[in-house]
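Sanity check

After download, print the first record. It should look like this:
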Amino acid sequence: MNDKHLTVSELTEQIRASLEGSFSSVYVEGEISNCKPANSGHLYFSLKDSGAKIDAVMFRNRLRYLTFEPKDGMLLRVRGNLSVYPPRGTYSIICEEMEAAGTGEILAMLEKRKQKLAAEGLFDSDRKKPLPRFPSVVGVVSSPTGAAIRDILNILARRAAKIKVIILPALVQGDEAPAVIAARIRQANFWKLADVLIVGRGGGSLEDLLPFSDEQVVRAVAESDIPVVSAVGHEIDWALSDFAADLRAPTPSAAAELVSENYASLTDTIRTAAQDFYSIFCARLERARLLLKPFDPQDMEYRFRSILQPRLIRFDDAKESLVQALSSKCENLRNRINLASAVIEAGSPLAAMERGFSVVTDAEGKIVRSAADVKRGDLLNIKPLNGTIHAVVDKIEKGE
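Expected structure tokens:
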């Protein structure tokens, strides 16, 4: 072995000097992938074609001159120079200029597939099914070890602990992923494993998310009798399964919130109603206590007497007035009866007879009212108050 050797740093420095000296200015065309704006304002991405891929970066002082927003799948032409990053031993293109060259192969393929599936009606709104208001079982088709499943489990445990979660493990990246994802969706429907399905994964590059745009996955989502929530990547990511699903969630965490929304709102409603009921009950109880406070037994008796006594006095006065009125009425009637009796008695024949008058009748019993009614020799009957006197007319004297 040669005794003269290089350190890793020395070798890397020689490579860096060689590359940067030989490729100080290059023009490259490729499809952008794994585009990630950094907090620093720099843009990190990859350029690729069908045979290779190279990392690239454009610093923020150059980004401000762009007239478009770079996104995964776009075909770009860039000018820059190669640079080596010694701590990682990697090389990349430092982009000075960038222009859009058209639609990338992946985006073109996805657009063609989207139009085909849309023409078959797989994305029609009338195919969409509403999510169950209160699902008891939620199925999750995703990687069992990914961050997405942890986020979903944490949110459901916090918002709706009673929901049962069934994990249907699936590959979410690579050539074998589409068949596994589609099989898991169909298995969930065949065995009726859940009330709603969440199908998705965490973020990634456009290539990483391609399994969820695969035709067999899109068809499995559209054919599912169980409502499907598509939750692929981050908010800016998308897949064709989003269009076929009954509901699209921007992230897996948002999907968990959507399927548990009614549980959370119901809990909040019950909690608010309970607080309102308690507050109203306490307020009314305190008001009742204030109203009842002055009504101790002695005070209540006093109040009762103060209310009842005037009415008793009015009742007694009314009774006395009624008795007096009845007595006066009776006395008046009694006086009238006595007066009538006196008048009747005064007109009675017996009363006249008691004063010495007598009733004179002829032999036939007719009352003799005038001297002209008799003649000399007639037999007369004279009836004083007591007894009867029989007399014969001896002399008649006519006159008033």
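If your output differs, re-run the checksum step. Summary of this record's structure: Residues 297-346 form the longest helix (50 residues).
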